[in-house]
Design goal:
Largest sheet: 5 strands, parallel
Order of helices and strands: EEEHEEEHHHEHEE
Shape: globular
Radius of gyration: 17 Å
CATH superfamily: P-loop containing nucleotide triphosphate hydrolases
Number of domains: 1
CATH topology: Rossmann fold
CATH class: Alpha Beta
Number of helices: 5
Distance between the termini: 22 Å
Structural class: alpha/beta
CATH architecture: 3-Layer(aba) Sandwich
Number of strands: 9
Length: about 210
């Protein structure tokens, strides 16, 4: 494997009951590329991205993550992957900084206070680290999900509906993060927003071939 980073899908298929969502998906994405998964509501976008990050097993086929010549299946690649989705649960009774501290402990990450503050600055939450999430808008909570996903500086970033609930400033923050992270990593985006397709190097339109 020559590429430092790669994502491979080999004949992936899933169904909902008797109804196929997608079948025989095969492709390869390498460092510096963005894969966008798009399609109508109910087409299987979220299912596919959950398969990629190991939250759901495919009924057919295999997903492989490669890093520096080492291959891992999604369930074993957690340390390599950052995951952002609207259903990622945060703790409303904790402050933003306390949420970051909690998720850092879960991942076994040692960070000093300044490191948490830098992450909050990166997602546009500078100065709000001591506010409890109960006082956060839905858009601010979505930004905090990005900070949590980036705690371990993952080479692979998977985003399900990445700008949901975000205002224009939040959308700009996400665009900047994607531009910065793609330079040395791989990003996967599941979306039905045509604007988010514009950053794609590879697109899967569910029911159609990747290109």
């Amino acid at each position: 494997m020559n590429a430092r980073l790669a994502l491979e899908l080999q004949h992936i298929g899933c169904a909902y009951g008797a109804r196929p969502l997608f079948r025989d998906l095969s492709l390869r994405v390498t460092a510096g590329q963005v894969l966008v998964i798009t399609g109508a509501n109910g087409s299987g976008k979220s299912t596919l991205i959950r398969v990629l990050c190991g939250l759901q097993r495919p009924q057919h086929g295999e997903v492989r993550w490669w890093r520096d010549g080492v291959m891992r299946a999604p369930a074993a690649a957690n340390a390599w992957i950052g995951w952002v989705a609207p259903d990622v649960q945060l703790y409303r009774e904790l402050t933003a900084r306390e949420n970051l501290q909690f998720f850092a402990r879960v991942r076994g990450i040692s960070r000093h206070a300044g490191g948490f503050d830098a992450l909050l600055d990166d997602v546009g939450l500078g100065g709000r680290g001591d506010d409890r999430l109960a006082a956060y808008s839905s858009g601010m909570q979505q930004r905090l999900r990005y900070a949590c996903a980036l705690l371990h500086d993952p080479p692979f970033l998977l985003l399900d509906e990445p700008t949901v609930t975000l205002d224009a400033r939040g959308v700009d923050v996400v665009a900047r993060l994607i531009a910065a992270r793609r330079r040395h990593g791989i990003i996967v985006i599941a979306t039905n927003d045509p604007r988010e397709e514009q950053v794609a190097d590879v697109i899967i339109r569910l029911g159609q071939a990747a290109h």
